[in-house]
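Board work, copied verbatim: Gliding motility protein
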Amino acid sequence: MASCKNGGLFKKKPEKSDVTGWNYNDKNQGGYQVSKEKEQRTGPGLVFVQGGTFTMGASEEDVMGDWNNPPRRVTVNSFYIDKSEVANVHYREYLYWINNVFDGDEHQAIRNAALPDTLVWRSELAYNEPLVEYYFRHPSYNYYPVVGVTWKQANDFCLWRTDRVNELELIKRGFINEKSLKNISGIAEENFNTKSYLAGEFQATPGKAARSKKNTLKNPNGTPRTNVTFEDGILLPGYRLPTEAEWEYAALGYVNQNPQPSKKEGKRGEELIANKQVYSWSNNVNGMRDTRRGSWQGTFLANFKRGSGDNMGVAGGLNDRAVYTAPVTSFYPNGFGIYNMSGNVNEWTADVYRPLSLTDVDDVAPYRGNRYETVYKDSATGAIERDSLGRIKNRFVTDEESKNRRNYQKGNVINYLDGDSLLQGVNYGYGLTTLISDKSRVIKGGSWNDRAYWLSPGTRRFMEEDVASSTVGFRCAMDRVGSPEGNGRKTGINYKPRRQNSRKR
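↓ predict structure ↓
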């Protein structure tokens, strides 16, 4: 019931700062705007992966003798990852947008740079020309994984996807005019870019909701605010390639093997970890998975090469029903609901490849490949600039800027603790002195043309970031902000506050 006082309704008390006592969202007390605490929504195509600790590394005999992934205990933060590999139809959507937005002759190089290399299907001793001609374009292959994409192209796809998802969300909420989607042809660098928008370098035409009095976003003076900030909780973090640790953790899907915590606060799961799981679909060390009646026993649970000359079995009894790749949602998903983490195509990860030791990565969120960047600003004016794609220009952080820091002393730390400091005159001359370089990126998961050994999440290989293959595709990931247990869960362990005793003197 509403009560009246002095002829008006009681107003809800504004939220106050715990440190100053000033009101939030109050134009009479400075107008500092604070959005209500909200959980991160799940972006299109993604599934939530609750983080935790696991034993990263090889889980069976090192057949190849590489010993490049020794087992070690690490922790992975919660994150999101695509439930399936990026398919041909998705990448063609990307090319369609590129061709529309950058349609002038002056942008031919941009359009060409995004094209996958369909010639990866060619082989000196095989008739693969039909795949060269049809695999990427024919609708029969719409939902087959895109291949022939370099690491750089996969990374650019993630950046593009971020902008399209965030742009559509702003249009749906009325902060950008909905007609802007119909007028993308030829706009080139004036296209919507999330970071450019947040930096104020891209000015979008406001939609109806932005100018409405019902708009919950306010300026300090209480008027509706037309531009959205990241603090409003509307825009999603960027899509990106998963780190190797994230990819391996997601592939193992251990969540189904741990006792599930009760919804009642105070009862939680035990730390039970199946360290020796071999494949992503496994529920036991033998790799078997079946129903109570055993209906899955003996069927193929991934797309791979069974043996020399056997890529799909015999006529009338095909085993994996795929001579090359299979649709991205084929076979049974793992514990997190993710498809084809073993087999179909190898997948790019974010990491630079090095043969690993037990001490060359952090035990929380391990990753190799950091080369720190900062926003490029004009030396004369200090203004932020955009590049030919409409993205904020960045530059690499210099060693001079980093030398006095405690957490890192160099801007380029790709080679940090990789053992090269012990060698004299080491030189990463690809193909001359070594096959490994700073452009070598980790690929994981095995493919349609690999034996079962490579399907284990603990195995790893590498390929140069500007090279493509008919056996390598990718999927995207996204950071998780807020509670690591997922939406609707609490962060930390909360106890009832105890009343303090005060004694009178």
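The chain has eight helices and 16 strands.
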